[in-house]
Design goal:
Helix content is 34%, strand content 20%. The longest helix has 17 residues. It is globular.
């Protein structure tokens, strides 16, 4: 578990993307490059050559603190931190320290900010994925209470579909392709679409 690869995306506001990138560049002993794309990306190449990025995200409600009061802010205050591939064993301490530095500089979250954790599925089997889905489904309420998920976020972070879980358990797919067919059943979009409707759940493939 400690060596499992993962990536993380953390949305926040309170400071600008350029300020967040400056803090990360100094902490990671890296270099920063402005990428003039749709997300106004600030890309940091760390001293170990891994890439960290700070992007804008249209779903974030941009705010900042002025004299202790929270006020509206420009889109420069829309910040999403996108990590490279990490492992808990090697990187969790550095990741936590970077988040502390960003918070100390004024970064904060609101009801329009979210977090995404991408887990490496390379070593999973259809059975292990089904077991994982069952664990998440059985602990839905506990997870939501522990994470204090705002009601405003529920449309982006839906609970596991009971019917989906029951169908997966009943069919007991033997291959990843069969499991994938069940997961995406009922959706009309192509599975290759980045913002596929199935992604707006606590757990998504």
């Amino acid at each position: 578990m400690l060596k499992t690869r993962f990536g993380i995306e953390i949305e926040f506001t309170g400071i600008t993307r350029s300020k967040a990138a400056k803090i990360a560049t100094e902490f990671l002993n890296g270099t920063v490059t402005a990428i003039y794309d749709h997300y106004d990306t600030q890309r940091i190449t760390a001293s170990d050559e891994r890439i960290w990025e700070f992007k804008s995200d249209a779903s974030i409600r941009t705010e900042k603190k002025v004299d202790g009061q929270t006020v509206s802010a420009s889109k420069e205050y829309s910040v999403e931190l996108v990590s490279p591939i990490l492992t808990y064993e090697a990187d969790i301490i550095a990741l936590q320290e970077l988040i502390r530095l960003l918070r100390k500089a004024g970064a904060f979250t609101n009801a329009k900010c979210g977090i995404h954790i991408h887990l490496d599925g390379q070593n999973h089997t259809p059975r292990s994925i089904r077991n994982f889905i069952n664990i998440i489904a059985s602990k839905n309420d506990l997870f939501y209470k522990a994470l204090d998920i705002e009601p405003e976020r529920m449309s982006y972070c839906k609970k596991m579909d009971t019917a989906l879980v029951e169908k997966m358990n009943r069919k007991k797919s033997a291959t990843m392709e069969q499991l994938q067919e069940i997961w995406y059943e009922g959706y009309h979009e192509s599975q290759s679409i980045h913002y596929h409707s199935s992604r707006y759940h606590f757990l998504y493939a």
